[in-house]
Amino acid sequence: MAEEPKPTLIRERQDVCELDRARLALLNPAIIEQKKEERTFDEGAKPFLEMTMREGIETVWDRFEMQQPPCKYCSSGLSCSRCAMGPCRIIPPQRIRGVCGAEADLIVARNLLDTIATGAAAHSDHGREIVLTLYGIGKGTVTDYVIADREKFLRLAAEFGIDTGKKDDKAIASELGHAMLGEFGTVKDHLQIAARAPKATQEIWENAGITPRGIDREVVEAMHRVQMGVAADYVNTLVHGLRTSLSDGWGGSSLATEISDVLFGTPKPNESMVNLGVVRKDSVNISLHGHNPMLSEMVLKAAKDPEILALVKKVGAAGINLVGLCCTGNELLMRKGIPNAGNHFNQELVITTGALEAMVVDYQCIFPSLPRTASCYHTHVISTSPKSRIPGSYYFGFEPETAYATAKAIVKMAVENFPNRIPERVFIPVEPVKVMTGFSVEAIRGALGGSFKPLIDQIASGNIRGAVGIVGCNNPKVKHDYGHVLLSKELIKRDILCVETGCAAIASGKAGLLQPSAASQAGPGLRAVCESLGIPPVLHMGSCVDNARILHLAAELGNALNVGIHRLPLAGAAPEWYSQKAVSIGAYFVASGVYTVLGVMPKITGSPPVVSLLTEGLKGAVNASFAVEPDPLKAADLITAHIERKRAELGI
Ligand code: SF4
Ligand code: MSK
After folding, report:
1. Of the four, 405, 416, 432, 536, which is 20 to 30 A from 625 by CA?
2. Per-residue model confidence (pLDDT) at position 373
């Protein structure tokens, strides 16, 4: 019998609450009340936030305050530390060039290209891990996963030109996995899934010289260009940023989404619950946080293992309660209806329920300080990715080949931690909110009766004015969830359908907008459509990589009308973005022809020409551009004006 996987404790944990208490003891009740209201718009988070301030448990908002004021050169993109001749800052009138001679525009553009490439690499490397698992199934080295959506599997095989006749699933998985892995370093000079884009959109890419060639190639070339002495012209540098982002959206992210559906099932509308109230007093609570569903799907399976269930009984718990966080949470929520404890800024607060036995993480958007927060409680932080070993956590090296055994060992560790809970510290004063999620492109088509024509007809008749993809994170520069919720509410009121992913979607869920009953808050046209279909006016389309679903939906609409994506009454928005991945997403939305409004200013204000290129100049190349508007109501005005302009151009 194989030996049970054992964790490595990366570093001894220490109780650090006292340190924070001393610092935060300076807060009086009135200040706590004021800060709580300023920090979050999430009603379910407020009691926890208040408690962290009372008890001296440090959170992201405290660290943000400690970092103020930020360096104005870094904030405007005017600092560079790329090589050992620097670091350099542009401080006119004397210091107008770095040591190498780079001026403000180039420094800002290089920094932005670096950011886009980082985000594209993160999404695409996640995609590669999912595809490697499919390939492992084909090769017989991975046996813990199965093909869950065979229809989609065969559809993708056909799309990749694989003759499936007389082949078994293993052989097809091997061929499809191989073909998809090839996309990372393809010599074809184009990506297969990008062929789904309307012809007119592909022609725009060709003319602008941004057709994505290979996923790894674009990221590597971006890294080459930011090496000192390569990129010299800001326009040329940023054009490659668009190409790199397209290799994410139509490449790495698309592969992650499509093969996750094949392995774990294509989402269908289902119901569940969100907010911190999903944590249960009587159960072993395990939160699953990060982005890659491979481990969390296996934890779901292991939580039903008879041996584990016997252990649950032995420790006196009512059961195991899995709760998602961020995008791993979105993946579980939309496919399996697993409740979600919240978005990015709920990750520390879920520990402060005092009822979390384990916080299991894979990668991306995980605060490295989580073990510090957990050390104030009995919670184990369990890290699992070789790419993200977190000091202070217990580490299990997760590999698809040994997925079930590792997941079972993790669940066992969580269950064994249940008796260590301190009952008087358990604090769950909020009730969860109902949500309907699972709107994959396939599910939307299904809900419309098998084709997108009814949706197009509703848009043409004006009942639905257009659609907006609201995506992205939380950022302490914006009141938690305020940007997402206000913008969504304002747009649906104007008969604009919202399709959402990532932390934006969870914010809407917590605010009650992912329920069919929220249709009552929509304008009369959208309301009638939602009520007739029994769907919410804000559709949850998944995780960060699932922004690819929004691209695919836009492509379906463009192809049905035989127009480029840029001609459709669509827009994108990232009201509270923080991550490099969000910059890549915004860039591939724009490069695909979707006008995109950011709620947080990127670090580009040090170069007026870069600002002008991104907000105006790009229209000449890709027929779309960025805008920056922190006020959600003004952002809604910008989006509405854009959608109405597109409608007028289409003559509808
Ligand atoms: Fe300074 Fe140029 Fe080196 Fe950047 S690349 S640190 S601007 S010398
Ligand atoms: S988790 S990238 S904070 S959406 Fe995808 Fe949320 Fe942004 Fe991470």
Report:
1. 536
2. 94
Q: What is the mean pLDDT of the chain?
A: 96
Query: Last residue of some domain: 233, 264, 295?
Result: 264
| CATH number reported for the structural domain that contains residue 114 in this entry | 1.20.1270.30
Residues of the chain above pLDDT 90, percent:
94
Alpha helices in 167-323 (DSSP H): 169-182, 199-208, 215-226, 234-247, 253-264, 293-302, 306-315
User: Would you state the pLDDT for residue 186?
Assistant: 85
CA 261 from chain center: how many Å?
A: 16
Q: Do 623 and 481 have their domain in common?
A: yes
Over residues 578-633, the pLDDT tens digits come to 999 999 999 999 999 999 999 999 999 999 999 999 999 999 999 999 999 999 99
Residues 641 and 493 in one domain: yes
Question: Ligand 2: which residues within 6 Å by Cβ?
Answer: 291, 326-327, 343-344, 365, 472-473, 502-503, 543-544, 579, 581-582
Q: Is 31 exposed, middle or buried (0-12, 13-18, 19+ CB in 10 A)?
A: exposed
For residues 264-286, give the mean pLDDT.
98
DSSP single-letter state for residue 429: -
CATH number at residue 590: 3.40.50.2030
- Residues 501 and 639 occupy one common structural domain: yes
User: What number of H helices and E strands is found in the chain?
Assistant: 27, 17
Determine, yes or no, domain membership for 70.
Answer: no
Report which ligand 2 atom has the smallest distance to the Cα of 544: 5
Ligand 2 atom with the smallest distance to the CA of 343 is: 6
Helix, strand, or coil (residue 388): coil
pLDDT value, residue 28: 86
Q: Are residues 280 and 256 in the same domain?
A: no
SS3 of 431-467: CCEEEEECCCHHHHHHHCCCCCHHHHHHHHHCCCCEE
CA distances from 196 to 39, 47, 211, 548 (A): 42, 47, 13, 11
- Closest residue by Cα to residue 253 from 138, 129, 343: 129
Decide whether any atom of ligand 1 lies within 6 Å of the 51 Cβ.
no
User: Does residue 25 surpass a pLDDT of 90?
Assistant: no
Longest dimension (CA), the chain: 73
| Ligand 2 atom nearest 501 alpha carbon | 4
Ligand 1 contact, 370 CB (< 6 A): no
What distance in Å separates the CA atoms of residue 561 and residue 360, rounded to the nearest whole number? Answer: 45
Mutate to test the pocket of ligand 1, among 113, 228, 234, 607 (most ligand atoms within 8 A of CB): 228
Instruction: Decide if 125 is inside a domain.
Output: yes
